[in-house]
């Protein structure tokens, strides 16, 4: 066992301080999380549009055939509840009562509160805790306390936790099991990079976690409540000075990327194979997500096409003003409404000559240039929106009040539900969003994975506990 690493108390049980990171839309499922708990850690079932199964054990496709977005949104909530309940029950059976099973939700997912309540109502005694990030989940503590489960908020700064603690969490302090610090420059998936932070200038996590512990101490939270370091964690030996460190208090570690490459991991083989080929720098921190958050994913052709889409972008004015002195004469139907600079007109004509003949308006008074097939795909995906987010920049959906954000739908983004469902269920990996943390290049260099070795979850947890 790695020096200094000891089990921690979680609820009424002892577990290893290693947590499986929740990965949404069918990636952290029962097989992976149940096995992680069986190995003595905390397994995490993703409650973000989880899979359900028919009588033969086959995955039930999530088909959204209702006529309106609001009706499709209701279908989505029901799929999410049914799938989450099914995954938790199966994971608990696999765990054999060992370790613990958490569920993970994104506060910014559509119908988050209804989904969380629906799952917890049907899984009493099976779920130990709820991890939740992507937004400011003020109601998380209230919901957890109501259902008698612990809560583990995911934040990326002490400032964010202070706001949550003062507004609501202090009223349900006894159910706070841990605070997950998700490093915005290292973690995969969506993260909490603020406008005050530079995406190109990563900050050392140690002082940020120390500042978080200071905030927790201000609130009277004992040092025995762990801070979970998430993002960039691969070898525990790299974090030796964090363990038993009185400045930081109790520390646990979350592994999101490493569990992707196990025998129990449900992701398709092509995705697993691609992970072994990644080099340092192949993960892109980007802002194309329709959530509006930064997120990190493999810089594959899908992401590069989004980069290209935004690069083929020019500002316009509705009238002649300043440098906007010529009319855009390509890509648009009525050039009278589009005044651009002479330089941008030349750029637009060059893009059209390359086959990007269609100009689409963005909410920021710019137009992007895309091909006809790309335009048709964007419009179809926007029309088919099933309300998977509380606010979607791509389709301008909102999951409450008048069901619209009030902004123009943004063609620089994409339908995140469609692409994550597709890649999780065997779709072409080059054509879809492939989330991964920035330490994923270690698959290529870590001797544990040499000669094509794919561990079981138990073998992976045992390896992690040695420090490697």
**Topology-level CATH name of the largest domain:** TIM Barrel
Known CATH architecture of the largest domain: Alpha-Beta Barrel
Provide the gyration radius in Å: 23 Å
Which geometry do the CA atoms define? globular
Oligomer: single chain
- Characterize the largest beta sheet: strand count, sense, and whether it forms a barrel: 8 strands, parallel
Strand order of the largest sheet: 3-11-10-8-7-6-5-4
Strand percentage: 15-25%
The CATH class of the largest domain: Alpha Beta
Q: Quickly give the structural class.
A: alpha/beta
Q: Stretches where pLDDT falls below 50 for ≥5 residues? A: none
Number of separate strands: 18
Number of helices: 13
For this structure, what is the CATH homologous superfamily of the largest domain?
A: Aldolase class I
Mean pLDDT: 95
Please estimate the helix content.
25-40%
Q: Kindly, what is the distance between the CA atoms of the first and last residues, rounded to a whole number of angstroms? A: 10 Å
Domains, number: 2
Describe this structure in words.
- This protein has 468 residues and is of the alpha/beta class.
- It folds into two domains: 8-267 and 442-465, TIM Barrel (Alpha-Beta Barrel), CATH 3.20.20.70; 294-431, no CATH class.
- 30% of the residues lie in helices and 16% in strands.
- It contains 13 helices and 18 strands.
- The chain has helices at 30-38, 69-95, 112-121, 140-147, 158-167, 205-218, 269-275, 301-311, 342-353, 372-383, 416-424, 442-445, 457-465, and strands spanning 8-10, 13-15, 18-20, 42-46, 100-106, 129-133, 150-155, 179-182, 189-191, 227-230, 251-255, 283-286, 294-298, 313-315, 326-327, 339-340, 358-361, 366-370.
- The strands form five sheets. An eight-stranded parallel β-sheet has the order 3-11-10-8-7-6-5-4. Strands 9-13-12 form a three-stranded antiparallel β-sheet, with no helix packed on it.
- Helix 1 packs parallel to helix 2 (69-95) and helix 5 (158-167) runs parallel beside helix 6.
- The longest helix is centred in the first third of the chain and has 27 residues, at 69-95.
- It is globular and about 70 Å long.
- The termini are close together.
